[in-house]
Amino acid sequence: MITAATPWGAMRGLESLSQLIWGTPARVLVGVYITDWPLFEHRGILLDTSRHYFGVEDIMRLIGAMSANKINVFHWHITDSQSFPLVLELEPELASKGSYGSGMEYSIEDVKRVVEFGLENGVRIIPEIDMPGHTGSWAEAYPEIVACANMFWWPEGAPWEERLAAEPGTGHLNPLIPKTYEVVKNVFKEVATLFPDTFFHGGADEVVPGCWKADPTIQKYLANNGTLSEILEIFINQTNPYILSQNKTAVYWEDVILDSEIKVNPAILPPETTIMQTWNGGPNNTKRLVSAGYRTIVSSADYYYLDCGHGDFTGNNSAYDQPPGTEQGKGGSWCGPFKSWQLIYNYDITYGLNEAEAKLVLGGEVALWSEQANGNVLDSKIWPRASAMGEVLWSGNRDENGKKRSGDATDRLNEWIHRMVSRGVKAEPIQPLWCVRNPGMYQKKEPSECDTVIRFAAYLYT
C-alpha cells in the first residue's frame, strides 16, 4: 500500500517500489515499510539550450530520468547570447533571426509537450530568459536595443576587466532605450503564458562593464555622473513588475545584488517576491543571501557545475602551451577540476548557516552549461552525478550518527546506474564492472580502486 498526500508523493512511492524489484526472474523485497519525504523542496537540474541546441526528445529523456531520481525541477535556461531558440508569436523575429536555424528552435507545441511531460512526471518546468546581459542573440532582430553586439568579446591588449562579455558572443540589452521594454514586455508576457509554473527566472547575471561602456547612449549617461549600477536599477525597476504582474515569483542570479561592480539596491527586490540563485563563492555567498532574508537556490560552481573540467572552449589559449612537467592546475577550465559525484555528494548546501538561515535555502540545482555539451553527451554529463545530488537533497548525506555515508552511497549508485541504463539513460559508470562482479574483494580501510562492497541496494531515500 502507498499512502501519500499528493499525486506527486504517490509517484515517488511508486518509484521506490520499482526499486525493490530486481533480478531475473524478478524478485520483490517483502516486509519493508518506508516512510519517505524530501529534506529540500527544490531539487533541480539546469540545462542551457542556447550554446548548443538540444532536441525535444533529449529534454524529455532528461525529465524522465529526473523523475526516476526524484529530482523535481527542470530549470530551462532557454536563451543566451549565442542563440534565441524559443519561437514566440509576439516576437517571432527573435527566433527566426536569432536561433541557429529553423531546425534548432522550440515551437509553442514543443514547449507544451515539455511542460505536459513534466507535469505527468512530477517535474516543474521553470523558464529562464536571461537579461540584460547574455542577450547578444537579440541583436539579430533588434540591433538598436543591444549594446556592443557582434563585437570581439575581448579586445586585443585590453585587460580582463575591460572585456565586453563573460565569453563570446557579446551583447547586453540597453536599459536606456524605450524600445527595449516593448520587446521585453512581450517576451515576459508570452513566456509566462507558455510556462504555468509560479517561478520565472529573469537572469541578471554577469553584466559586464565594458559592454555598456562601449555604447554611445550609455556613455552620455555616465558622462552626466550616472553609474552602471543605476542603469541596472533602471532595468530591474522597469522589468521586475512585468514578472510580478503575471503572478510569478521572480528568480535572479546572485549577481544582481552581490556583484562587486554592477548591482542594485536590495530594497528594490524585496525577499517576499524574490528568490536568489547563488553560483559563486560557495557557502559564503549562500550565507550573504539568506542573511539578507532571501529564499535561495544553491548552484555553487565549485560543486554543482557539471560542465567544469573539460578544458577551455576558446582557441589560442596559452594555458595549454606548457612544457612537460608543468603543474596543470585547472587545465584551462575556469571552474575546473571536474566535479565528481563524490564531491557533489559530500557538499552540504546549508554549511555555516544557523537554523533560521538554513530554512531559507529552498534546495539546489546542478547545472550543465553547454559550451561543450549537446544531445550526444547529455546523459553521461549529467548522470549519475545528478543522482548524487538527488539523494543528498532528499535524505541528506549523513547516517543516523552524523557520519558521511558516501561509502554506502557508492553501493546504491553503482546499482542505480545499471537501472538507469536499462531504462534507456546512458549514464556514466563510476567503477570498473569487475567491482560489481566481484563483491567483497576490497574491504580495506585504505581506499583502493574498488573500495566498497558491491551488493544489491535499492536506491531509496530513507
Automatic annotation (TrEMBL):
InterPro entries: Beta_hexosaminidase_sua/sub (IPR025705), GH (IPR017853), Glyco_hydro_20_cat (IPR015883), Hex-like_dom2 (IPR029018). Keywords: Hydrolase, Signal. Its EC number is 3.2.1.52. Pfam families: Glyco_hydro_20. It is an enzyme of class 3 (hydrolase). SUPFAM superfamilies: (Trans)glycosidases (SSF51445), beta-N-acetylhexosaminidase-like domain (SSF55545). Signal peptide: none annotated. It catalyses: Hydrolysis of terminal non-reducing N-acetyl-D-hexosamine residues in N-acetyl-beta-D-hexosaminides. Belongs to the glycosyl hydrolase 20 family. This is beta-N-acetylhexosaminidase. It comes from Tanacetum coccineum. The lineage of its organism: Eukaryota, Viridiplantae, Streptophyta, Embryophyta, Tracheophyta.
